[in-house]
Amino acid sequence: LLKGNGVPFGMLAEFEKILSKDQIKTDSDSLNIYGKDWSQYYKPNPTAILFPRSTEDVQKIVHTARKTKTALVPSGGRTGLSGAATATNKEVVVCFEKMNKILEYNQIDRTITCQAGVVTQELQNYARNHNVLFPIDFAARGTSMIGGNVATNVGGLNVIRYGLMRNWVSGLQVVTGRGDILNLNNSLVKNAAGYDFRHLFVGSEGTLGFVTEVTVNVTNPTQQRTVLILGLNNSDHVLDVYSTFRDKLPLTAFEIFTHDCLKYVIENHPELTEPLSTQYPYYILIECENPNESSVNDILSLFEICLEKSFVQDGVISQSEVQVKNFWKYRDHISESLSKYHPYKNDVSVRISKVTEFMRETNNVLKKEYPDFVVAWFGHIGDGNLHINILKPRELSMEEFIKICQRVDHLLYSTIQKFQGSVSAEHGVGLTKKPFLSFSRSPQEIELMRGIKKLFDPDLILNPGKIF
């Protein structure tokens, strides 16, 4: 029996028993919107969208899914790029946007507890209003949700100073594929009582259970910031610049982007102009704290050293907080400015000390395989994470473009394997990286992952087909 647009009547009726009508959507617009993330390679094909309001709702959904043998795909802000939040095979999507409450700020423990659907920027603003800092930050802050940040162990712009999402998760509430509600770690600073399952769920992409509540640590706000934008003729001295500044100053961010990235940002944001008087193939953005006049003098001195040693050719230093924000726009707007060209994206990482060598070798591969394509690089040098964007020519269809790009995936990931890097730095494995997991993980590791998945999700109903 079918209902509406082809949704199985019996299955939908079971979910209608546990949720109100406004918590279930089956119209085509909703299926298309909530059935995919920012990856553009997969056509969404969900059966229905469910909107839980509480952990208990999620538990009921999982129990019903086990009963009806229904596959579930989690959905938050859908800003991921790996297809992990895409439903391609008649799955039911569980969207957390109605679970959007900030529940508690504990001043003594310096923790904030919130539901999984809280938007990252809202949590940042809430922390700021309490004179503390939640330091995980990235360009999609206004759309991404905390549950998804946990599920992908998001990194972002400040990893060099503050680490990954994993470093800030104090406690988790999750619903497993068995329908069990687990409260993991309870915000304990020290807890050596057996395995810490909290860290299994961080980065698990919704394959072990669904995160429903998150408790994060917060810290002191950053001091006054200075941002530099430096121009380089090539990437050979990137690590020299990094070492020069890192050894003397507490860096908050150390980013790189090519002029191709900058060009598209300026095209899409006419209020921005070239940051330097001359165009350079590569740009470095450095952010550091300057709590006193001595720090400012150190920054200027290190900049001059880099100029004298020809590590960089030119640069500009922010003189105000307004300039700090404007300089960051050159970096923050890259992904959005490239999106209209339907980029074929790769999000990879190597050890920081190998970044320059990896960029050189990978550039040679890409120039050979894509002589007529624009390849736009940007990334977080301070944590070895690079984003490679191959832009689609207008004359090619999306299908033709993807086929051409996929031919070189094996070469790119073979290079990653050679450098003992990761095929996914911060967007997860999902669907896009699934065929290449073995380039970063051994057969033994993958087999253990499968065993862990089966333990927490015995019916294999949670985000099936993702990771492996």
Q: Based on DSSP secondary structure assignment, what is the total number of beta strands? A: 18
Radius of gyration (CA) equals 23 Å
Give the % helix: 25-40%
Strand coverage percent: 15-25%
The end-to-end span amounts to: 33 Å
| Number of helical stretches of at least 4 residues | 15
Quick one: overall form? Answer: globular
3D structure, described in words:
The relative contact order is 0.12. A hairpin with a 3-residue loop joins strand 1 and strand 2. The chain is α+β, with helices and mostly antiparallel strands and 468 residues long. The strands form four sheets. The protein has a seven-stranded antiparallel beta sheet with strand order 15-12-14-13-17-18-16, with helices on both faces. A five-stranded antiparallel beta sheet has the order 7-8-11-9-10. A four-stranded mixed beta sheet has the order 3-4-6-5, sandwiched between helices. Helix 13 runs antiparallel to helix 14. It has 15 helices and 18 strands.
State the main characteristics.
468 residues; alpha+beta; seven-stranded antiparallel beta sheet; five-stranded antiparallel beta sheet; 15 helices; 33% helix
